[in-house]
């Protein structure tokens, strides 16, 4: 049975940052600047995006896959830099999408057919845009007063929901102990609704420390 703990803790301070920042100049995306069109399922970028559905591939490459305008905008607002953005042809006339694409270098954006996009997407009803980012460094603030400790929260949807609730409650950070799902997996990201970019996190591959008291089950 998965246990959830709440505790006060003082943890090392490391500034949250992306593994690397893009040095490319941001270019405005307008109707006369169409992204490159990808029309082969064997395109290396499409194949890479599809592989990132698996935690092993995310850990191997250091990349995460974000789907939907809101989630991608949350990542950009947090200071992350996209490595690749893919748009379904069906979404190219979306004004809100134009504003999102204006925030990334034009050379990293590409479009593809709706069937190919659905093949790459993790959802049954794709949002029409996805992006690859470097996985952020998970850190905590210098002197947190309240930390959520998650132990063996193996269901990604439950973990994402906990992170979202933590963000709403103003928790200073989250420790993910052994047995927790990957907070950067598709289901956890959808359930978190951007909380992963607002709640500092640290993954700890150990059982919870002895002083922590069990306060409830998840």
Structure description:
The protein folds into two domains: 3-10 and 137-217, SPOUT methyltransferase, trefoil knot domain (Alpha/beta knot, 3-Layer(aba) Sandwich); 36-134, 60s Ribosomal Protein L30, Chain: A, CATH 3.30.1330. Helix 7 (186-192) links the parallel strand 8 (173-176) and strand 9. The N and C termini lie close together (7 Å). The protein has helices at 44-51, 55-61, 69-77, 95-101, 114-120, 156-169, 186-192; strands at residues 3-7, 36-38, 63-67, 82-88, 109-112, 129-134, 147-151, 173-176, 201-203, 216-217. It contains seven helices and ten strands. Mean pLDDT is 82; it is low at 1-32. It is an alpha/beta fold and 218 residues long. The protein is 27% helix and 20% strand. It is globular and about 50 Å long. The strands form two sheets. The protein has a five-stranded mixed β-sheet, covered by helices on one side. Keywords: Methyltransferase, Transferase. Residues 146-204 form the tRNA/rRNA methyltransferase SpoU type domain. Belongs to the class IV-like SAM-binding methyltransferase superfamily. RNA methyltransferase TrmH family.
């Amino acid at each position: 049975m998965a246990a959830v703990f709440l505790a006060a803790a003082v943890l090392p301070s490391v500034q949250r940052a992306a593994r690397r920042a893009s040095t490319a100049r941001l270019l405005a995306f307008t109707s006369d600047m169409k992204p490159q069109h990808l029309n082969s399922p064997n395109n290396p970028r499409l194949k890479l995006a599809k592989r990132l559905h698996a935690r092993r591939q995310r850990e191997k490459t250091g990349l995460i896959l974000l789907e939907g305008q809101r989630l991608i905008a949350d990542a950009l607002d947090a200071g992350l830099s996209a490595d690749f953005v893919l748009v379904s042809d069906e979404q190219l006339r979306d004004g809100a999408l134009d504003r999102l694409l204006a925030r990334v270098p034009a050379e990293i954006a590409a479009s593809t057919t709706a069937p190919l996009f659905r093949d790459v997407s993790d959802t049954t009803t794709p949002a029409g845009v996805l992006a690859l980012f470097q996985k952020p460094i998970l850190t905590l603030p210098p002197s947190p007063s309240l930390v959520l400790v998650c132990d063996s929260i193996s269901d990604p949807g439950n973990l994402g929901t906990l992170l979202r609730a933590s963000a709403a409650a103003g928790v200073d950070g989250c420790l993910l102990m052994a047995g927790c799902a990957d907070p950067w997996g598709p289901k956890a990201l959808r359930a978190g609704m951007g909380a992963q970019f607002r709640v500092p996190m640290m993954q700890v591959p150990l059982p919870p420390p002895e002083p922590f008291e069990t306060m409830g089950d998840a």
